[in-house]
Amino acid sequence: MASSEPQNSLVKVDNLTVRFAAKNRGRRSYIEPVRQVSFDIAPGEVLALVGESGSGKTTIGRTLVKVVEPFGGHLYFDGRDITHLGSRAVRSLHSEVQMIFQDPFAALNPTATIQEHLVLPLRVYQRVPSTKLNLRVRELLEQVGLSPAEELRHKYPHELSGGQRQRVVIARSLAANPRFIVADEPVSMLDVSIRADILKILRNLRDSLKISLLYITHDLASARYLSDRITVLYGGQVMEVGTSRDIVKNPRHPYTRLLLAAVPGREGDLPQASEAAPDLSVERQGCPFAPRCPYTMDDCRTGDIPVRSVGSRHQVACLLEETDKDVLASAP
């Protein structure tokens, strides 16, 4: 599968497939929440994975940090094949690759202070001497906008607000001094009033530290604000890839238009034929969005829908690009 490839990629995902065992009427079967997904992330770049729940976004992120093992395809970090690693190699990788989890309360140990949460990665990954730990903890807290650090470092997670806890989670990921961070819907469980502050922190970290980010979200508006490029996923497969501006201003896939229509403040009806959940079975064929698409053709349900280039850095997996390109242009 083709991908929009920046030069000198730090992260490369090549035809990634993830398969899980499931039971169907008492019989063992399998689902593929991720099927042949490819993308690249350059040093200092932010790529957003956008899609509804069940689109495979989090599974891809957890595969990159080696929480989930891939069934097929390859993963590369800085030119190294990290598809399958032993426990020692995974620990070494985590000094360069970290993850910000969606739920900041569940991600923190309720019995440990903020100081203890930050000291552990500083010792494990950076081998910071004891005499400098307090200084580094204060620097990390101030880096994510938590002050006064001397007061907050001795608090427990339940004594902080949701926004403060998420800042601690971000600080903990920075303690390893990573080059790449997977941010799994880091603002979805926070009050609307503080989401913008967290996004600003992530953007500033990208600008100041040149950290690459994989930003996982269902919200195209925040993806447009934070990311350089967007990959739209549905049913575990790539629907569209492009710059953030192209995806928002010139969407080419019906599913991308559906996501944009759901953004508050945008006008237009939701262009879909049904609200059926995507089929994730290994036997599925065709485009996973076909049951919901108002423009479905026979080949959409059974054929192989490759990702085609529709611009220098814009790609789409849709047969409309080969038949009637004016259909989407006239859609609401």
Describe the structure.
With 332 residues, the protein is of the alpha/beta class. It has 2 domains: 237 residues, Rossmann fold, CATH 3.40.50.300; 74 residues, no CATH class. It has 12 helices and 12 strands. The strands form 2 sheets. Strands 6-7-8-3-9-10-12-11 form an 8-stranded mixed sheet, with helices on both faces. A 4-stranded antiparallel sheet has the order 2-1-4-5. A hairpin with a 2-residue loop joins strand 11 and strand 12. The relative contact order is 0.15.
Note the overall shape: globular
Strand content: 15-25%
Would you report the number of β strands? 12
Question: Percent range for helical residues?
Answer: 25-40%
The CATH first-level class of the largest domain comes to Alpha Beta
Cross-sheet strand order for the largest sheet: 6-7-8-3-9-10-12-11
Name the descriptors.
23% strand; globular; alpha/beta; four-stranded antiparallel β-sheet
Helix and strand topology:
Elements: E1 11-24, E2 27-41, E3 46-50, H1 57-64, E4 72-77, E5 80-81, H2 87-93, E6 97-100, H3 114-125, H4 130-143, H5 149-152, H6 162-175, E7 180-184, H7 192-209, E8 212-217, H8 220-226, E9 229-234, E10 237-243, H9 244-249, H10 254-261, H11 298-302, E11 308-311, E12 314-316, H12 326-329
Parallel strand pairs: 3-8, 3-9, 6-7, 7-8
Antiparallel strand pairs: 1-2, 1-4, 4-5, 9-10, 10-12, 11-12
